[in-house]
Amino acid sequence: MTLTACSGAGGGSAAGGDANSINVLMVNNPQMEDLQKLTADNFTKDTGIKVNFTVLPENDVRAKISQEFSSQAGQYDVASLSNYEIPFYSANKWLAPLDDTVAKNPDFNQADILPAYTASLTGKDGKLYGEPFYGESSLLMYRKDIFEAKGLTMPANPTWDQVANLAAKADGAAPGMKGICLRGQPGWGQLFAPLTTVVNTFGGTWFDKDWNAKVNAPEFTAATQFYVDLVRNHGEAGAAQAGFTECLNNMTQGKTAMWYDASSAGGSLEAADSPVKGKIGYVQAPVKETKSSGWLWTWSWGVQAASKKQDAAGKFIAWASSSKYENLVASKLGWAKVPSGKRSSTYENADFQKAAPFFEAEKTAILNADPKNPGVQPRPAIGVQFVGIPEFADLGTTVSQGISSAIAGQGSVADALAKGQDAAQKVGDKYKSK
């Protein structure tokens, strides 16, 4: 864990202490690390509000945020939350609405936020509970130079069968290079983020519209076995413990020819100091039975309802999610590193388009993602790469552990999904009775 008082010494607890100090709990993704570096010399300098960041890996930060916000202790004012958590966090009254503190700020320009995110961050009561820091879908990224050297062609809209064939041909194309990198690290937001999109496009689903679990159904099984076989045969070393960060490192370091993951990775791959800048191609998420399969996700900011510093928290969010902040990142770090995917104006910016060759593929994927109908059958809850219910975090993580073991060669997909079916049906039965 990294705890940093961005203004230097001091800081103070969010539950008390300095009235001009807030505590922010967030995931350790590259965009957040950039924010941490830029806050003191810009936001704090302009407002006098000190920001103390606690930065944790994805699985760890999810657990800590859940613990902190459910207890409403008020230790943290702001946290990085997603379009998965915010609907039921708001329903549980763990969050403070942002309609008056952020959305009505004319400098913020709420109308510029992509409608899909405003909708997904609005509670059942019609109030807005989150503002996106950045948005993303999922893309297939590949080394254009490697493909050219090997005489390989990447389709603009590849199928998973085509990807598997390309992975076999690209394996070993350069010393130590594998054909593809796919997440294998346990966790509903790690392994199952990409894998659930594969399940969807293979015709599978976690639950049918009547809450009957379908985890060991033929389509879910076929998708999972395909994924496991692909990463075992042509994936990265140590795949069972590889998440987003590990695959990003592999791609940046030239250890993999392809990577299917978050479109937001493009900012790091195209950064000025990236060894693979300008060498990456970006195409839509691979499909099988559906026309598209990219996920819809946003890391957003939410304010704890128990926070005593909601005004200061709102000012921080209005700055961190603003066009002004995007321009700051562009001036300091380059347009490719701007936390994009949330504002229409960013995609229309010629400087961003020039620096971010992934912009068109990302925008297309975000606009085509359909959280209400991501597969071939009706669903009982919204979500592309997740099921929009509180229980999914534990369910997805539990099932992922068996699949990760199968990737490591220590178990079978069939056994993992048989256990997963039992766990999923217990969840489904709860909703059948509601």
Automatic annotation (TrEMBL):
SUPFAM superfamilies to which the protein is assigned, alphabetical: Periplasmic binding protein-like II
Xref: CDD domains: PBP2_TMBP_like (cd13585)
Family matches, as PANTHER family: ARABINOSE-BINDING PROTEIN-RELATED, DIACETYLCHITOBIOSE BINDING PROTEIN DASA
Protein name: Sugar ABC transporter substrate-binding protein
Organism of provenance: Arthrobacter terricola
